[in-house]
């Protein structure tokens, strides 16, 4: 600190103030101010500073007074809440920190506790209100039993000044007494009434009328408000439940019979989904036990009558559409047989069935049942043939690839540049791999078919022909085809050999067979798999000496 001014004036300031005062004195010296003027001006400056300090002191004093008032108010509010909640064992943080803490610290320390007590008061008030509401509700439900309930209600008065745990426990005690009274008297009645309500809902009966026959007091919107819980009422409810269960059992059996008939007629008539959806609410009854059938109105007389009427309608429609149904089922049978390559039974052919129905020699229902049995039999047989039919499909696909590969090998322009040539080359490679597997495919298919025939003691027919015969014929024709190809290759080799000998004897001549555009200048030609094989003819070969026996052997091969 630095002292500035005359001896009678003491003005202390921080280093910042000292710097400013030094700068101010330097300016005054440069101006030429006298020492007296400098003291006067410093006195004025000190007076202004004192006024500023005085204002700040007054403001601080006012703030202190307000804080004192706030602390006192918070302390009073805290004491009130503690007394109302019975929290007398809580020490006030204001008193604990009275000597060491500032006013703001005291105020800040009491605020959380005060907020906590306010929240606790609100929760306690809600508890009291909920308990009182329950007490009043239960007392109204069981009113009239004795005078205990009225005395309990009259003793319950909510006082916001007494929200202690002791008072809450007293409220809860009253509530538990009433709940015990209610539970003892109404538990059995409520069980019976609920069961009657459920049974009446399923059977489509009037619940109010049913319970009124037992006791009129039971006919209320809220069954818990029942006032008559005497033994006669309980016995009456038991007898009513027994009668309703007997009626439910009889209706369930009747409805199951009707639904079974509906399913049979729907399948027979090939009914639409829209038509069946009208009765979707009752169809699930077939797979459920009696206690699981709880859907309201499911066993009502109206529902059963509607289902019975639908059965009668479909039965009448069945008689008029029987021929159409027979023809439709026969078409379905033929389609299934066509897809599975099984020959259908000719005894139920469309023309024969139509003639039998028109002549009246056979019952259409029996004919339809026969066709249905054939459909089931064909589906079962198709399932047992699936492994073999899948192998047949793979074999047929390989044959198609073989035909494509033959056409591809005969195309002289298959190696010419153009769009898609590389795709055909790749396919040709895959086709060759597949074609090479055909003999093994056929042998495996024959073995599988023979095993199937041995297991079932019947022939495996494919579109009416035994599959083994088809495969054996295929093997013979394939063998003949391979021999034909071999003979063709041998003849071609002989022709090329003769041409070479002629060229050696008489000189080289252009061959029309070799003048196609695909001949390579280096003496190579393309084989079937796209690679290059050497041409057996070489221009640089030396002349060969041909004897008479050799020419005779060649002519025999050519003529053969």
Q: Sketch the major β-sheet.
A: 2 strands, antiparallel
Low-confidence runs: 1-13, 144-149, 511-560
What coarse outline follows from CA principal-axis ratios? flat
What's the assembly state of these chains?
single chain
Work out the radius of gyration. 56 Å
How many separate helices?
18
Order of helices and strands: EEHHHHHHHHHHHHHHHHEEHEEH
Question: Which percent range fits the helix content?
Answer: over 70%
Descriptive report:
With 560 residues, the chain is mostly helical. Helices cover 71% and strands 3% of the residues. The protein is built from 18 helices and 6 strands. A hairpin with a 2-residue loop joins β3 and β4. Residues 1-13, 144-149 and 511-560 have low confidence and may be disordered.
């Amino acid at each position: 600190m630095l002292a500035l001014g005359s001896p009678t004036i003491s003005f202390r300031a921080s280093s910042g103030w000292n710097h400013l005062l030094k700068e101010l004195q330097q300016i005054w010296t440069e101006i030429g101010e006298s020492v007296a003027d400098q003291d006067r001006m410093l006195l004025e400056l000190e007076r202004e500073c004192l006024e500023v300090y005085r204002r700040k002191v007054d403001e601080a004093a006012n703030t202190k007074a307000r804080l004192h008032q706030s602390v006192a108010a918070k302390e009073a509010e805290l004491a009130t809440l503690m007394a109302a909640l019975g929290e007398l064992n809580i020490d006030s943080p204001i008193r604990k920190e009275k000597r060491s803490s500032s006013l703001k610290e005291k105020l800040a320390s009491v605020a959380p506790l005060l907020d906590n007590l306010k929240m606790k008061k609100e929760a306690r008030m809600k508890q009291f209100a909920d308990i009182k509401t329950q007490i009043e509700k239960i007392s109204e439900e069981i009113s009239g039993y004795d005078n205990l309930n009225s005395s309990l209600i009259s003793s319950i008065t909510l006082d916001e000044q007494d929200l202690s745990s002791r008072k809450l426990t007293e409220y809860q005690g009253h509530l538990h007494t009433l709940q015990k009274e209610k539970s003892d008297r109404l538990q059995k009645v409520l069980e019976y009434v609920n069961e009657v309500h459920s049974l009446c809902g399923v059977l489509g009966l009037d619940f109010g009328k049913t319970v009124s026959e037992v006791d009129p007091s039971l006919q209320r919107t809220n069954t818990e408000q029942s006032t008559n819980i005497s033994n006669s009422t309980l016995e009456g409810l038991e007898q009513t439940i027994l009668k309703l269960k007997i009626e439910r059992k009889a209706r369930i059996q009747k409805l199951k019979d009707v639904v079974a008939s509906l399913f049979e007629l729907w399948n027979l008539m090939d009914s639409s989904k829209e038509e069946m959806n009208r009765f979707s609410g009752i169809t699930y009854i077939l797979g459920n036990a009696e206690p699981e059938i709880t859907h309201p109105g499911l066993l009502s007389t109206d529902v059963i009558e509607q289902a019975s009427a639908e059965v009668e309608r479909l039965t009448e429609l069945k008689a008029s559409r029987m021929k159409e149904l027979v023809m439709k089922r026969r078409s379905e049978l033929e389609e299934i047989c066509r897809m599975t390559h099984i020959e259908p039974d000719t005894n139920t052919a469309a023309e024969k069935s139509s003639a039998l129905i028109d002549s009246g020699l056979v019952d259409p229902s029996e004919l339809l049942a026969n066709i249905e049995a054939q459909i089931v039999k064909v589906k079962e047989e198709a399932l047992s043939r699936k492994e073999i039919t899948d192998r047949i499909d793979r074999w047929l696909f390989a044959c198609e690839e073989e035909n494509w590969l033959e056409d591809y090998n005969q195309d002289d322009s298959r190696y010419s540049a153009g769009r898609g040539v590389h795709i055909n080359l790749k396919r040709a490679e895959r086709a060759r791999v597949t074609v090479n597997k055909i003999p093994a495919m056929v042998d495996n298919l024959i073995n599988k078919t023979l095993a199937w025939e041995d297991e079932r003691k019947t022939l495996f027919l494919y579109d009416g022909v035994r599959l083994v015969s088809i495969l054996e014929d295929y093997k013979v024709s394939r063998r003949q085809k391979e021999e034909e190809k071999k003979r063709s290759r041998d003849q071609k080799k002989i022709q090329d050999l003769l041409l070479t000998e002629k060229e050696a004897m008489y000189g080289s001549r252009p061959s029309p067979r070799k003048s196609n555009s695909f001949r390579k200048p280096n003496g190579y030609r393309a084989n079937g798999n796209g690679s290059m094989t050497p041409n057996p003819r070489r221009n640089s070969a030396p002349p060969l000496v041909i004897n008479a026996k050799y020419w005779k052997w060649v002519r025999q091969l050519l003529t053969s």
